[in-house]
Amino acid sequence: MANSTSILEWLGFRKASGVTEAGWGHTLLVGIVSFIYFLPVLFIIFTAIKPQDLALSVPPTISPTSLFGLIPDQYVFTPTLENFGSVFSRVMTPGGSPEATGFDRFFFFFIFISSVSVLLALVIGTFAAYGFSRYPLKGNDTYLFIILTTRMLPAIVIVIPVILMFRVTGLSGSYLGITLLYTAFNLAFTIWMMKSFFDELSTDVEDAARIDGSSEAKVFLKICLPQVVAGLAATFVFGLILTWNEFLFALLLSNADTRTVPVAMNQAVSSGGRGTDWTLLASIETLFLIPVFLVTFFLQNHLLRGVTFGTVKR
Amino acid sequence: MNTAVRDLPAPAMFEFDASNWKLAILAGLAISILAALALPASLSFWVIGAMAAMIAAVFAINAYRRKYYGGLLVAPAIAVLFVMNIFPLLWSLGLSFFAYQSNQQTIRFIGLNNYIKVLTNDIAAPANWDALINTGMFVVSTVAAQMIAGFLLAMLFAKQFPLRKYLLILVLTPMMLSVVASGVFFTYYYDPTFGILSYAIGEVTGEQFILMDNKLGAVTGIVFADAWMWSPFVMLLVLAGLVSVPKYLYEAAAIDRVSKWRQFWTITFPYIRGLLMLALLFRTIEAFKLYDLVYILIRGGQDTKTIAYLIAEIANEQNKTSEGAALSYVILFMVIVLTNLYLYLANRRNQGA
Amino acid sequence: MTVMMKLKGLATAAGFAATLMVGGATIASAEDVTLTMAVPDWPPTRIMKKFFDEQYKPKSGNTVKLDVDFIPWPDFYTRVNASLTSGEQKYNFIVSDSQWLGAFVEGGYFRKINDLLEADPDFLATFKTIHPNPLNAYSTYPHKSENYYGFPQFPDVLVNYVRKDIVCHDEEQKNFQAKYGKKLPCTGEELDAMTWDDFKNVGEFFRRKKGDMLAGAPAEDDFYGIAYQAGKGYDFSSMQINGFIWQMGGDTWDETKAPTGQAEGVVNSPEAIAALDKYLSLIEYMPPVAKTGTMDIFVSDQLFREGKVAMNIDWIGLGEASLDPKSSKVSDKLVFGLMPGTMGADGKIIRWSNIGGQPFVLTTWTTDSQIKEAVEFVKWWLSNDIQHQFAQAGGQSAVKAVYEDPKYVSYRPWNRAWAPSLDWQKDVWHVPQFFELLTQQQDQFDLAITGKQDAKTTLDSIAKFQQDKLKEVGLIE
Asked: How much is the pTM?
């Protein structure tokens, strides 16, 4: 994060090296493009705060405010937070009283396993990437390629062996099992990504440090790692997004108590066997967005700084 | 490698030493076999696991003492991958040589028959080939769309301007959504009765607009949704490359009055090539697995079934496990050939540059 | 450290690790019996669980726990199939679509219950009070044999969902009479008397553009007369098309006639082709989403609830949503009728239809003590009192004494169509090749629905595939 932050810098006026500067005109252009790009997401967020009976209205309601009369009334809806309430507790049987859905538990459980598995993959994968980059083994490229191969097949192909394995070991339905599995899913990407970052670093500084008598561990921790922080941030974000989206194994290896959010989300897609509940789905999706959104936002400076890795190249 | 490897003599066979991996393997194997014979499966698994861990530890100590850092660093990743991914993959590779359906108790070795069946059988093969062509079409169109959109977006953000970080995160959000939920919302956007697209067009033409009643429309719908979701991935990687170009290179080019086009190819491109290739590689691999959107938007109708769709039908719904595995490995083979070709080309250009 | 100590340490460590993994799972003592059940997550199963928790008192005095895994409908098959075929042996009870019986019985996962029925006359008596059509569909494998497997969880049939405010409107009534020389069906009885030709007239009659007059006011949006399932997913066209085929004298491949019964010549008989043509001819009067091949049971239901169609044929299982003002714009304007039929030569309407709903079954690894409690539970579930309560809460009952009770009709507006429908229910195949047959058939029907090929080509292709496939596995000689 920024060490000295003025309001202006915080608003994005930071000066970065290697980047040409542009003014508000460019902001306007990018603003329009970004807004259009963001529209489908905005619509989902608006659906989350719509009254349930307006979810499918024709003409579609597209805004919670008329923007001082800019948008005709027929496109405007009155926002409500009711839908978020029904994510956590709603009526499950006709005429019954609202029941807890357990979504809060799924949500935190899921944040927990995805962050743990992504971090684990990041640690293991960074070591491996450093190994592949600095101490090439015999057949280095073959190993790297085999690692890549693990991402090439549709997950459905390994379902049966994985379930069997989990059953034999008692890992089925446990946090540990699914965390390890997700770690493995993330490794291929982490290794390839981090290796390309390590490859870009100049080895001059490292060699100098070795001549000065630094141990290999010190070279890695004190010299190489700080230079790839940006790469770590980017990999973390990508890994989190991929894990956050995994569906099949979350479905097959979880218990009623250890559902993950994407699986629980399908409850809204079918809405108790009656087809899609749009406002509920949008609410879950909006909640689902928050953690990754926050993480990305706070790592963003690193993501963009990332970037400096080329300046010391060769 | 700069540091000299210190040549430590390997320990003798029965020397009790923490780095004696030969003894560790022997002991580990013996105990594992005893455990497997004497203890119930659930317990013996853990004993065997512990033995494997012990052997691994001994290997690690051995590697550390003799400075095999490469192996040492790579080993944990390989171990996790092996257990969680490679082992199940080999298992299914094995299954592809058997006649096996997961909901039946019989299994019979049939060699390459599954492969012959998925490629040449009258009933199964035409669908497979169609799906293969569709997959190829989707790979080319989605990856091209993502690369172009991602690249253009990255160009927009490669400057420093006010509110940049806030606008950037807007563009990154599509990637963060769950594919299932945003896919379901795209069915809404495309719906002829309720959808926004149909409504907007209807305001002009007076007719409800049906996007997906033909193959072109269905493919466009799928490609658009997919490209929208994954362009930010390409964009972020390209952006990382773009921002890393030292400014002085551009300044020098400006003094020499080099054209923008030439500037791009001689200065910018070398900096983004690596990351562009990485993005291309990973998006291509993912595009070969395209399934969710095809299923959610059109249920594989309008002739849009992909190979991943067929594999889900065959291996999951119909429980034809070994046939599904064989089909998967045919695809894997193609992806491997393609990525190898691509890595070869990428490396060659790298060395040429 | 000696070797023994080392081993002990290892064992403790392993035990500790195992405890960590399994978490809080408890080991059942003699008095505690846990029945684990895989169910789709929807009201009928939620109600079952609720009744169990609130009312069930095991006669044995044991503490019986029903551990229900509610799985979202779209993923239900994937989850259950993977659990069964991987040998996870996790569930004692499974709610299963009737057509899955063959695949899972042949796989050795579903437990035959004939011995349990024979050992317990009470149980057998309860079991025999179920209407034979649902019983055959939900419980027998091979189909209509004496081998029993399942119990009805939520039995279901197709009925006609109708907008009263539209079809009973005077203006519309008058115009319809003038145009077709027939009364526009409006009451339940009139709806029951509908044939597919009447249904088609309704579709043609109510095709309105935005702004056209509809029931005395300008239509706010395009409006359509009719809808039924015409989707490519799962069985979302076969279930409707089968009804057409059976009603019009055609047939599907009949598994009870195996191995002499044929597919070719039967599946693509002229009657079946005419029936499919009839089915396809109605699609042009339906909402435009039908042309994409994605108008499944949920989409047509959603269109109906949003007030875009006058009549929709759908499962009763989706009905609660249309009664609920929160999810339905037509909740107070509903009337229900039997699914339309085909006029027979004798002037009586033929009403064959494909049965829906799900049984639940016992799995083969269920232990004796679990089975004892399971049987008690099923007897309790099928008892008149609980079935009545279930129907009152929004379920359906296939138990004769319950649905023949005059009270039954008053529980839900569609219940008047329930008992008459039951006599006309048949089911599609239960053979282990079910999914292969279904996928190919759905693909072919989709081609016809989206206008890519005609009825004859479609049924010829289906017949050929079924003939080849079933010959290969020995179900056709």
From this structure: 0.89
